[in-house]
Write a structure and sequence with these properties.
By secondary structure, the protein is an alpha/beta fold. The chain is 38% helix and 18% strand. The chain is built from 13 helices and 14 strands. A ten-stranded mixed beta sheet has the order 2-1-3-12-11-4-5-10-8-9, with helices on both faces. Strands 6-7 form a two-stranded antiparallel sheet. This is 3-isopropylmalate dehydrogenase. GO terms for molecular function: 3-isopropylmalate dehydrogenase activity; magnesium ion binding; NAD binding. Its cofactor is Mn(2+); Mg(2+). It holds the Pfam family Iso_dh.
Length: 407
């Protein structure tokens, strides 16, 4: 098993106009602990977690794309499919079965579809699908979540923002993933002095949790454009005051990085007003959850964006940032692009298989260039297709249209 941070490409999707041979451009592999050697292993165990809603549909497409790109690059996979979320609740009574966590830990990488749905919304907290995902992240010790938001040239008109605002957006949100208010204690329900019921959570970070995600983000910014914006609420929250203190202290080690600070409410506004001012954003768990979803809509559809969750060792967790979309589940309407691009991130960041990753990235742009769209990104003059057909078109591009070494 290869440690994800040893393989981490610290630059997100960076798109450039193309003509006959579209290419998703990623830099050569650089990392916190640089590793550019050819991978010694060409056979991998991948844990697939289809989950709920549209998850099984998009995972099916991504699996086919992985198989084909891998076969063309001499890679073999052993897939093991496990339960998570609502599907696990229905089958086993818990959102994260021990068998699932054990398999994930022992694999080389984990690819997740989506979890959740109306069916389980009224469950107690420990029996909600989302609890299973939080437990999985904690179990894998993946503390750094990379969420790129890049506007594809072919989809710039799908953004709800004006052309001049959306065009050229290329930013990365680095979200702390295993601390903060989602995991802090004490938490629960109680009664106040007036006899009223209360619910409470704790936003808490230890110094080492802030330092490791901040250092990670500084390294990301160093491989991008040298700008890092730390988002907090230091004018109100003690946890954010401490966050800013630690980030400022660590900045002394990175004199080449232009560090700025922004309150989360202003950051939310600025993402809509002028998203191109941002390069790399680092923030806590809850703010990162919200801001990365907001940033995704700048691109035109949340269905286009992948993510990678990485730790110091063990397998990484790769997933689209969209939800389970129960309203369209089983109707062949899902957009598989984000999951396919998550598979590409899995290859590059989790396994160090750059050529296979490039095949997939190139194929996504080629498929877009040929005009194929699902409903969420459809516009006049393009070809409206379902999830399955879009997957077939991506496979055509993987196999025959775009060479792996196009960069």
């Amino acid at each position: 098993m290869v440690a994800p941070l040893q393989l981490l490409n610290l630059k997100p999707l960076n798109l450039r106009p193309f003509h006959s041979s579209p290419t998703l451009i990623f830099p050569k592999k650089t990392s916190i602990r640089c590793s550019s050697a050819t991978p010694s292993k060409r056979s991998y165990t991948i844990t697939l977690l289809p989950g709920d809603g549209i998850g099984p549909e998009v995972i099916s497409v991504a699996k086919d794309v992985l198989l084909l790109s891998g076969s063309l690059e001499g890679i073999k996979y052993e897939f093991q499919e496990k339960l998570l979320g609502g599907a696990a609740l229905d089958a086993t009574g818990v959102p994260l079965p021990e068998d699932t966590l054990s398999a994930a830990k022992q694999s080389d990488a984990v690819l997740l579809g989506a979890i959740g749905g109306y069916k389980w919304d009224k469950n107690e907290k420990q029996l909600k699908p989302e609890t299973g995902l939080l437990q999985l992240r904690a179990g894998l010790k993946v503390f750094a979540n990379l969420r790129p938001a890049t506007v594809f040239p072919q989809l710039v008109h799908a953004s709800t923002l004006k052309l001049e605002v959306a065009e050229g957006v290329d930013l990365m949100v680095v979200r702390e993933l295993t601390g903060g208010i989602y995991f802090g204690k004490p938490r629960g329900f109680g009664t106040n002095e007036n006899g009223e019921e209360t619910g409470y959570n704790t936003e808490i970070y230890a110094a080492h949790e802030i330092d490791r995600i901040a250092r990670f983000a500084f390294e990301v910014a160093r491989k991008r454009h040298g700008k890092l914006c730390s988002v907090d609420k230091a004018n109100v929250l003690e946890a954010s005051m401490f966050w800013r203190k630690r980030v400022l202290a660590l900045a002394q080690e990175y004199p080449d990085i232009e560090l700025s600070h922004m309150y989360v409410d202003n950051a939310a506004m600025q993402l809509i007003r002028n998203p191109k001012q941002f390069d790399t954003i680092v923030t806590n768990n809850i703010f990162g959850d919200i801001l990365s979803d907001e940033a995704s809509m700048i691109t035109g559809s949340i269905g286009m964006l992948p993510s990678a969750s990485l730790g110091d060792s063990g397998p990484g967790l790769f997933e689209p940032i969209h939800g389970s979309a129960p309203d369209i589940a089983g109707q062949d309407k899902a957009n598989p692009f984000a999951t396919v691009l998550s598979a590409a991130m899995l290859l590059r960041y989790g396994l160090g298989e750059d050529k296979a990753a490039k095949r997939i990235e190139n194929a996504v742009l080629d498929t877009l260039n040929r005009g194929f769209r699902t409903a969420d990104i459809y516009s006049s003059g393009t070809k409206l297709v379902g999830c399955k057909q879009l997957g077939e078109e991506i496979l055509k591009s993987v196999e025959s249209h775009v060479p792996a070494g196009a960069v």
